[in-house]
From TrEMBL:
GO CC terms of this entry: cytoplasm
Protein name according to UniProt: Fumarylacetoacetase-like C-terminal domain-containing protein
Molecular function (Gene Ontology), one example: 2-oxopent-4-enoate hydratase activity
Keyword Kinase in record: no
Origin organism lineage: Bacteria, Bacillati, Actinomycetota, Actinomycetes, Mycobacteriales
Transmembrane segments: none
Keywords for the protein's UniProt record, in alphabetical order: Lyase
Length: 264
């Protein structure tokens, strides 16, 4: 038993090392065949630990595969969660920002801002909804660490749901935007309109993504903290972007979020 447990931990650390190395050096790895979600979320935690050790701070959470177009495109039909850190927050346009990247792709999203701690094991999903003070439009940049973005659900969870960067627009008062009116969220790259999707693509209403998040957070025993951002997931399939591209998401209800894809 004990030996098995030790081997199990060694496997978590080994997979985390490979995925972390791929992210740090911008070199994709072959799919690792992470069979279970239990192992996958353990690897994800080990990856986040490495980032925190390098001085990054916890910044929030991201959902994946909350819309039919994303599920169809990636062949995954289960909502997944990844974790955001301070190094992924590209909201402020800092000239000269650098990041190792493999095959970055951008997505238009909706973001929520949490303004009190929430323990999902103790509090219901409705409590999480009422802990949200802000809603914003967002751009997420994903970058799978697997060759050709080929993965099963366990692999992509282990790879922190392909998280690499995000930007949020101005925070609007959440209570005035619940439920969120259905409307289009558009994606622009260097000023060119590239894609658009409806807010209702996200489980009928992006607020429902918080309930889906609550489910996973309860299982994982995660706590939400003051200032946590929660990205609700893309309303369209992801769009390829390049170094230096200016990417924005626009909504006539929520405004604009913008980021620049970092240099190598
Ligand atoms: C996984 C990340 C999915 C979303 O918004 O659905 C995601 C991927 O497609 O690589 O961020
Ligand atoms: Mg996303």
């Amino acid at each position: 038993m004990e030996e098995g447990a030790v081997r199990g931990d060694a496997r978590v650390e080994d997979i985390a090392d490979r995925l972390d190395g791929a992210a740090v050096h911008g070199l994709a790895v072959e799919t690792l065949g992470v069979e279970t979600l239990e192992l996958a979320y353990q690897v994800q935690s080990a990856l986040i630990e490495r980032r925190l050790e390098r001085g990054e701070a916890h910044a929030g959470w991201k959902l994946g595969f909350t819309s039919a177009s994303k599920m169809r495109r990636m062949g995954v039909s289960q909502v997944i969660v990844g974790q955001l850190t301070s190094a992924m927050d590209w909201t402020a346009d800092e000239p000269g920002r650098q990041s190792a990247l493999i095959d970055p792709r951008a997505e238009p999203e909706v973001a929520f801002l949490v303004d009190r701690p929430v323990d999902c094991r103790q509090e219901p999903a409705t409590a999480l909804r009422s802990a949200v003070s802000g809603v914003a439009v967002a751009v997420e940049v994903i970058d799978s660490r697997y060759v050709d973005s080929k993965f099963g659900v366990g692999d992509v969870v282990a790879d922190n749901a392909s998280a690499v960067g995000f930007a949020v627009g101005p925070w609007l008062v959440a209570s005035e935007l619940s439920p969120l009116t259905d409307h289009e969220i558009e994606l622009f790259v260097n000023g060119q309109h590239i894609a658009a999707g409806l807010a209702s693509e996200i489980l009928g209403d992006p607020w429902a993504a918080l309930d889906a998040f609550h489910n996973v957070a309860r299982e994982q025993g995660w706590m939400l903290q003051v200032g946590d951002v929660v990205l609700a997931g893309a309303v369209t399939a992801a769009v390829e972007v390049g170094r230096g591209d200016l990417v924005s998401a626009r909504s006539n209800v929520l405004g604009t979020a913008q980021l620049r894809i970092p240099e190598p």
